[in-house]
Amino acid sequence: MAAVSTVVPGSPARARARNRRRPVRYHRSEVLWAAVFVLPAIALFAVVGVYVILYGFTLSFANWNGFTPKWTWVGLRNYADLLWRDPTYAPAVHTAALNTLWVMIAVPVLTVMISLPLAMLLNSVRRLRSLLRSVYFLPYVTSGIAVYFAWQYVLQPDGAINLLLGSAGLGSLQQPQGFLGNPDTALPTLIVITVWSGVPVAMMLYLAGLQSIDPTLIEAAQIDGAGPVRILRSVLWPLLRPITAIVGLLALRDSLQGFQTFLIMTNGGPGDHSNVLGLEVYRLAFLKLLAPTLGLSSALGWMLFLAALALAAVNVRVLRRAT
Amino acid sequence: MSVRSVAARAVVGLLLALYAAISLYPFLWMVSAAFKDQYEVVRGGHLIPHHPTVRTLAETWNELHFFDYFLNSLKVTGLTVLLVLVIYSMAGYAFAVLRFPGRRALYRLFIALLFVPSVTVLLPLVLLENKLGLLGGHWGLILPFVNGSAPLSVLLLTNAFETVPAELREAALMDGAGEARIFTRIYLPLSRPVLVTITLLTAIPTWNEYQLTRVSLNDPHGFTLPIALQNLQSGAVLHYNVLMAGALTVVVPVIVLFLAAQRYFVNGLMGAVKA
Questions:
Q1: How far is B89 from chain A (nearest CA, A)?
Q2: Which of A4, A75, B126, B138 is placed for a possible disulfide with B272 were both Cys, Cβ 3.0 to 4.6 Å?
Q3: How far is CA A265 from CA A189, A222, B203, B208, in A?
């Protein structure tokens, strides 16, 4: 859904940079109108945005369980506890970080590997194209608890997927504990479902990219005797690189920050085998009852924020190079 | 047509159909279970119910109050979308059209918010709302949802308003029209596709929102559909036919909305990428 976010470095900012040198003369009435027009957005942001962000930042240096009247200031200890010092929290964070890393590698790669061929196939047919496009889009439109419950239903021990594997003669792939109950398959299963929800937007972006490519380029390559694989590798892939950059970075961002699927389907289990960093922040904040973990949660949240900022910086650079 | 190209087209068709099946897979089982009774659903295996019944769905709507939860969801999503459209189209107009000091910096600030992970602000948000007495009510959900869709909405609307020819505004100014009139009579009507796109991009995640809602709402009368669904699952005995009937109630409205608006939505998304 943040598909468009990554396009920021493109249009309006750059166009405006050109005019920057010229001193702008402001008109009084225009400035007043502007103040009126941006006021609601800024007022809301000041309360729900700025205050909240600063409050969370302060809390990351304190110890609190949410009920006692006073915070205990601990300086940077929360950060140290999470990273290496605390014998219970640090290992959990390490596991979650490693899992998050797996998600951040697997999800972008799989998303590109599925959505690009799918967009090419879809682009090559005329009949039923718009119907198929709508069908392919359903996983995005409905992504949320209802669909995750449906996945749980088909993935459970006597669910449809195990039955399907059995009747297809692939009984060895069946999971008697259910795909989410087995520590070895829980994380891969969640990755597949994340990719399943992410493919629609990626496919749509690739489709837009493919439709903007001049068809004579492909015809010329065909006349030169290039087969479909060669055309994909030497013509389409380089031309679509900006789209791939957007798709990849979008998937990276969602892998780093998203945790809804994990919260709903496994809550990190079994054990901590499918825990990710976003989920750990959430669990430290809301699921530890009386333990004083609110400061820890804020600290971990801020580390996640820093990682997201680093990603955003890379994001902008890669996009500049690609476009 | 040669044999080879017929074969190639068959393979293409087969692959496209295969992914359609993958996309539909959980929905098919959701529908299947929702129309089974509680005995048939545990005898699993078959997709088409042998004794299809609408009893489960009817019960979910009446005895389990899913109709009330549906109305709550409609209220939260509707108000969120309405506020997003009003607040950020105004801001977008200022960013795209009006000249004022600090315009670029403000615009960038709103876009930069995209990189704040929502989970980082979740806890302080809940604490703040608790202090303000907003926690537990629907406004405690709506306001942060609106603020959360700021970056994308500002980005799309500013881009859209920049493509409106400036001559239109100048002509209207000559005729004595004020900014409010120009905004509502010229800019908004010309940007309808983007407004539809934003409606969907806001409505879909708001309708499905779970993380904040789950830790905010305590009073069952105020529950939205995702939380009601969660409660079904954590109940004493888990009946998958009931759970899937509830899930169907959650997904059908968004699917209907998407099908109604998809033409604008697809073009809006693609336009945003090409821009």
A1: 9
A2: A4
A3: 10, 47, 23, 15
> CATH second-level architecture of B64-274?
Orthogonal Bundle (1.10)
| CA–CA separation, B242 and A237 (whole Å) | 47
**Nearest Cα residue in chain A from B267:** A208
Is position A125 within any domain?
A: yes
The residue in chain A having the minimum alpha-carbon distance to the alpha carbon of residue B230 is: A145
Contacts of A239 in chain B (CB under 8 A): none
The answer to whether residue A129 sits within a structural domain is yes
Domain that holds residue A286: 92-322
Kindly determine whether residue A5 and residue B114, on different chains, have CB atoms separated by under 8 Å: yes
Q: End-to-end distance of chain B based on CA atoms, in angstroms?
A: 40
Per the CB < 8 A criterion, the answer to whether A194 and A107 are in contact is: yes
Tokens coding A322? 């690609």
Condensed to tens digits (0 to 9), the pLDDT of residues A107-155 reads: 999 999 999 999 999 988 888 888 898 899 899 988 889 999 999 888 8
Per residue in A258-270, pLDDT (tens digit) is: 898 999 998 887 8
Structure pTM? 0.86
What CATH number is associated with residue A264? 1.10.3720.10
Measured in angstroms, the CA of A87 and the nearest CA of chain B are apart by: 23
Work out how many domains chain A is built from and give that number.
1
In a domain, A286, yes or no: yes
ipTM over 0.90: no
CB of B83 closer than 8 Å to CB of B146 = yes
A37 in contact with chain B, both atoms CB, cutoff 8 A: yes
Kindly determine whether residue B116 and residue A31, on different chains, have CB atoms separated by under 8 Å: no
Q: Does A71 touch chain B (CB under 8 A)?
A: no
Q: Which residue of A has its CA nearest to B145?
A: A48
